[in-house]
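As the next step, I selected for study one protein, both as residues and as discrete backbone shape codes, as given directly below:
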Amino acid sequence: MASLYVALIHHPVYDKRGQVVTTSITTIDLHDIARSCRTYGVPAFYVVSPVDALRGLMRRVLRHWQEGYGSTYNPNRREALDLIQLQRTLEGVEIDIEARTGRLPKTIATSARESADTTGFAALREEIASSEEPWLLLLGTGWGLTAEVLSEAERRLVPITGVGAYNHLSVRAAASIILDRLLGTR
């Protein structure tokens, strides 16, 4: 079975007015998504931001949980956070995965917006399971991945839908649902 990597994209993403922005990194996203990644066997969880100060702050937070008091206080948390790789760009993520696996990953874009060119969870689950290539799941922050990122992805996953019209899950909740649907036991 191929490996599925995860990238949390902080740039380029939209704000609620449709402007391309860089969003702030939040520690709760790092903790919760890393724990989900560890649970489902994801080999690396990338956090993508071009802002040096934010990546520096995240390094300090990670050091606390990986080397500092947090590493002995909560070893399970350390194990999950060890998956986190900070990158400046999406291209940096792809280069790192190629260095790890010898192949560029196939990218899977996510969006809460409907589109005609989407792939369902079952079909993508089967494609990933039968592939020898690495895959990279792109999760957008803010109001989602830009049209450029969506159009450059090899696959665009169908949106997660609930029982009504409301569709604004947190990225960490969406990440858990997606990982379970793509990698969870059935």
Summary: The longest strand covers residues 4-9. The two ends are 16 Å apart (CA to CA). Helices lie at 27-39, 52-66, 69-73, 75-81, 90-101, 121-129, 147-152, 171-183.
